[in-house]
Amino acid sequence: MIRISNLSVNLPGFSLKDIDLHVEPGQFFVLLGPTGAGKTLILESIAGLLPVDSGQIQVHGRDVTNLPPEKRGIGIVYQNSALFPHLNVRANIEFGLRYGKGDSKESRQRFDMLVGTLGLKRLLARSPLHLSGGEQQRVALARALVVDPRILLLDEPLSALDPNFREEIRDILKHLHQETGIAILMVTHDFGEARFLGQQITVIHQGRLQQTGTADEIFRRPTAPFVARFVGMHNIYAAEFVGPMARLGANTLRLESPVSPGSGHVAFRPEDVALFNGSMNSDYREDEEGNTLSGSVIALQHQGVFSDVRIQSEDLQIRAITPTSRVVQMNLSPGEPIQCRITPQNLHVMV
Q: Of 319, 333, 346, 325, which is closest to residue 283 (Cα–Cα)?
């Protein structure tokens, strides 16, 4: 378990302020945010690699705020694996054992389990210089876990890998977490990785925590415009609320339920925008429930199975992601009139 309370770190030109995080025992927790948001600084503060200005860090109920890294019982894996080039794979994995505690028989059993699980047996005598990116990350994971840490910290472990290796290591991480039951805190800028691995996610931006919740909660119910944009909601507009209606400039949308009068934002995902025109079929009927906005296509980009359609409706620019087959069926092209439908259930209110 990790508990961070009121953590602050001040660096030239950047600061972490009032960071509160709670990672449950055995939980896979993901810290999600763009490059430069402060994710790695939090990891390095937990690991003891970065001094903190204020606040407290607890690991399994023990205050480790001022302990040196080797006394914290924490393993860390960076995106570049950081293997020792002068040691072979076996020596890299065993390196941390000289500082570890416990029976050597248990350490050997753990070594054998990790080498087998991670598929490293045939690589033990090889130099890290002759390993692929995926193989290097597997060795780095084994090195971090062989000392039986209480917590495993992962700093963008997939970002430097090509797509094939990325999927391989992602699956291994999920399997290792299930096998070992260790608490894992991973930082990433990729929401797809966060959704696949994270049981709980916190979004961070400019050194401040924005929202914590499950992947579905953050994906469907962001609490701030930054979070909405970051998880791909894209259609985000300033709004004035009057009962069950939201006024977005010249357009008015009906909400699923009334909102207290005032201002805020309305957002909806591009894949929740239904498109139709004179070529529509029975799948799209004008008497269906929803908010219908009229406009014209201003841009169209095919992206394989799906297409990205940009629409101008009064003073709103709307982005829709729709099957390419639908775009072909409707014979869409820039300049063509179009209608958009967004159901009240798919409108997200942020006040």
A: 325
- Which has the higher per-residue pLDDT, 282 or 139? 139
pLDDT at 20: 96
Q: Which amino acid, 164?
A: N
Q: Phi then psi for 275, rounded to 5 degrees?
A: -110, 145
Using an 8 Å Cβ cutoff, are 222 and 233 in contact? yes
Determine contact, residues 158/192, Cβ cutoff 8 Å: no
Q: Domains in the chain, ordered, with CATH?
A: 2-228 (3.40.50.300), 232-265 (no CATH), 268-343 (2.40.50.100)
Q: What three-state secondary structure class fits 208?
A: strand
Structure tokens belonging to residue 4: 């961070």
Stretch (H or E) spanning 152: strand 151-155
Percentage of the chain lying above the pLDDT 70 cut: 95
Q: How far is CA 130 from CA 114, 116, 118, 137, 194, in A?
A: 20, 20, 17, 13, 30
Q: To 10 degrees, the CA torsion angle through 164, 167, 169, 173?
A: -170
Average pLDDT, integer, range 2-21: 94
